[in-house]
UniProtKB/TrEMBL annotation:
Localization terms from the record: Cytoplasm
Domain AAA+ ATPase residue range list: 164-297
Top-level taxon of origin: Bacteria
Name the UniProt record assigns to this protein: Chromosomal replication initiator protein DnaA
Chromosomal replication initiator DnaA C-terminal domain boundaries: 375-444
Cited Gene3D superfamilies: 1.10.1750.10, 1.10.8.60, 3.30.300.180, P-loop containing nucleotide triphosphate hydrolases
Keywords: ATP-binding, Cytoplasm, DNA replication, DNA-binding, Lipid-binding, Nucleotide-binding
Quaternary data: Oligomerizes as a right-handed, spiral filament on DNA at oriC.
PANTHER family xrefs: CHROMOSOMAL REPLICATION INITIATOR PROTEIN DNAA
Lineage start: Bacteria, Pseudomonadati, Bacteroidota, Bacteroidia, Bacteroidales
């Protein structure tokens, strides 16, 4: 071998660059770093930033890699990946590979490796907490919509069982991050107090287990098992609506744990007062600790989530694409992640760069299109989200710069996208007259003629409600 292995790997990268798009090269191959080469075993080791990158390389680019390695290193060359990721983001450092790589995955006990109906009160040290280790606080990005619940959740994880936040009842719409947060509490608590019996269970699974216990005449054992838990986490309890016997059984479990100072964490899509079929004796207990609401993520939080995901998975998305996704696919965190995964798949299959054109194409297929007419409330909501102001700010008489811009843009978009006269728009935006609306529209038009950055802002906001047209 005439050339040094590191230089040969650089030759490989040059060949790869000639055979893929620039975006694909930057996303999947530029982050790869030469690690080592064992000439005796003819094994090349390279570092990659995440398991996700490994999976994509093995699924879509293994043939290309095989050809360039053969060209540069010769025949019978084995490629090994070393996944090196940032511990600061809650991840680990390990190795992984395909047929040619020794797989050394961490042995983590998760919900996938134990029967969900297995209950073993006799061996407490063997209790599987049924937690997802990836749903931790490091990956739960803080924003205005979740700051209070996240702060309380972290406090509970560090000091479980304190009466102030016991029980902790979290509610919010689907996709607002409830399951992630309650998992994160359990994961953090288990890290700090490994001896504690922590258990995550869905309401549906609890009901299935209870039904099995009734059939097998082991209800007392079932109740006893749950009464041994130190931190009980129950998800989606709204599914117990009208399940009288399940609720009565849970009451005995709850009452025992609460009296013994054990921590109880509950999650639902609605507050306790709106739970159907739940008796007052349980409702009062659900409400006696801390109730916290999770809202859907705002645009800035969506941007932070997307940037974190890209950094964690070794992805590179243009800033305008990140902004567009955050403004159009922000009904839930799951929707955001689905759009990212779809973008990567389209980019690979069609050998295209990730840009605004592809993002618009994917989002139209991934996000439910709302065909109702755009309203002034829709417009104000999007403008407020973009400038991080509130609707009362827009309606007020304040002359604070960001309030004025948001107010003028709301009027501008209302005139452009609705059929309302200027007088009606003025009434709906803080009770102003038609001359104020006309002045605001003229101000926006004039500024767009001379301020390129402002034009980009206006376009960004318009993109956020394109799907409503």
């Amino acid at each position: 071998m005439d050339k040094a292995p590191r230089l040969l790997w650089n030759d490989c990268l040059s060949l790869i660059r000639d055979n893929v798009s620039e975006q694909q090269y930057k996303t999947w191959f530029e982050p790869i770093v030469f690690d080592s080469y064992d000439e005796d075993n003819r094994t090349l080791v390279v570092q990659i930033p995440s398991r996700y990158v490994y999976e994509v390389l093995e699924q879509y680019y293994v043939e290309l890699l095989s050809k360039v390695l053969h060209r540069c290193f010769g025949t019978n060359i084995a490629l090994k990946y070393r996944v090196v990721v940032d511990k600061a983001h809650g991840l680990t450092v390990d190795e992984e590979g395909s047929e040619s790589v020794a797989i050394d995955k961490p042995k983590v006990s998760t919900r996938a490796n134990q029967s969900p109906t297995t209950l073993d009160a006799a061996t407490p040290q063997d209790l599987n907490p049924q937690l997802d280790p990836h749903k931790n606080f490091q990956r739960y990005i803080e924003g205005d919509s979740n700051k209070l619940p996240r702060t309380i959740g972290l406090s509970i994880a560090e000091h479980p069982g304190r009466t102030t936040f016991n029980p902790f009842f979290i509610y919010g719409p689907s996709g607002s991050g409830k399951t992630h947060l309650i998992n994160a509490i359990g994961v953090r608590c288990k890290e700090i107090y490994p001896q504690k019996r922590v258990l995550y269970v869905s309401a549906r699974l609890f009901q299935v287990q209870y039904t099995d216990a009734v059939r097998q005449n082991t209800v007392n054992d079932f109740i006893h098992f749950y009464q041994t838990i130190d931190v009980l986490i129950v998800d989606d309890i709204q599914e117990w609506a009208a399940a009288t016997k399940t609720l009565d059984t849970f009451f005995h479990v709850f009452d025992h744990l609460f009296r013994c100072g054990k921590q109880i964490i509950l999650a639902a899509d609605r507050p306790p007062v709106d739970l159907v079929g739940v008796k007052d004796r349980l409702l009062t207990r659900f409400s006696c600790g801390m109730i916290a609401e999770l809202h859907k993520p705002n645009v800035q939080l969506c941007i932070d989530i997307l940037n974190t995901k890209c950094r964690r998975d070794g992805l590179k998305f243009p800033a305008d694409v990140i902004q567009f996704i955050a403004e159009t696919a922000n009904s839930s965190v799951r929707e955001l992640e689905g759009v990212v995964n779809s973008l990567m798949a389209y980019s690979i299959v069609y050998n295209s760069d990730i840009d605004m054109r592809l993002a618009e194409r994917v989002i139209k297929r991934a996000v439910k299109v709302d065909n109702r007419p755009l309203t002034i409330d829709d417009i104000i909501e999007k403008v407020c989200a973009h400038y991080n102001v509130t609707q009362p700010n827009v309606m007020s008489r304040s002359r604070k710069r960001e309030f004025v811009i948001a107010r003028q843009l709301s009027m501008y978009f209302a005139q452009k996208y609705t059929k309302m006269p200027a007088s009606r728009i003025g009434q709906l935006v803080g009770g102003r007259d038609h001359s104020t609306v006309i002045h605001s529209c003229n101000t926006i038009d004039q500024r767009m003629k001379v301020d390129k950055a402002f034009v980009e802002e206006v376009t960004s906001i318009e993109n956020s409600f394109k799907l409503k047209q």
